[in-house]
Amino acid sequence: MRRGRAFGRGIAWGNRTGLTLLGLILFVAGGAALARGLGVFGVNAARAPLLPAPVSAFARSTSWFWPAIAAGGVVVGVIGLSWLLAQFRLDRLGRMRLESGPSGVTEIGGRQASEAVADQVSAYEGVRRVRASLRGKPDIPVLDLRVTSQASAHPDALITRLHDEALPDLRAALGLEYMPAVVRLRFDTSGRTREVH
Questions:
Q1: How far apart are the first and last CA of the chain?
Q2: Averaged pLDDT of the chain
């Protein structure tokens, strides 16, 4: 098991920081424009053109100015949307090739492999919920395993079973000698039985 920074945590931190900074900049710019239009900075500022005189004159005399601004806005919007959608993809593996030869190719879906290890771990005593996913590259996948257990369960026994049973079984099934894993344990103190996914 890999103990250390979670896989992709640095990328996720960079994305969150970038989105936060961009959101703050847009919020301040929009708030300033709204305040100016409402006359917070004075009546003259509210009635004055938003663009400086040379830029306004250039925009009026150039037919392609506003279409170029609109095209730039569309490009920025598409980039922002793709960035937002990338936050939900989380680089999960699609398919992994187990073996190939003259008779054909054997592949397994990353989701099916994740569900197999989740089903195995969910049968362990005291486990209430398991979420597993394979991320990274097909030749060196990383297992991201989140386990919720009863508060009364002993963590050492669960970690030992994960280390000695679940992870070696998954590596053997995928034909890998080495596979990093990030395991997050959470202990439920609510006392309620919850469905295992």
A1: 22
A2: 79
| CA 168-94-106 angle, 5° bins | 65
Amino acid present at 25: I
Entry pTM: 0.49
Alpha carbons 65 and 135: distance in angstroms, whole number: 44
Sign of CA dihedral 123, 125, 127, 128: positive
Long-range Cβ pairs for the range 62-66 (8 Å, 24+): none
Specify the residue for token string 């100016």.
Answer: 36
Q: In this predicted model, what pLDDT tens digit does every residue of 76-98 receive, in sequence order?
A: 889 888 877 776 665 666 666 66
Instruction: Give me 172's structure tokens.
Output: 């053997």
**Helix H or strand E encompassing 105:** strand 104-109
- Written as six digits, the tokens of 155 are 């963590």
Please give the pLDDT value at position 194: 42
Confidence of residue 26 (pLDDT cuts 50, 70, 90): confident
Instruction: Provide the residue type at 163 as one letter.
Output: H
Tokens of 187: 């202990």
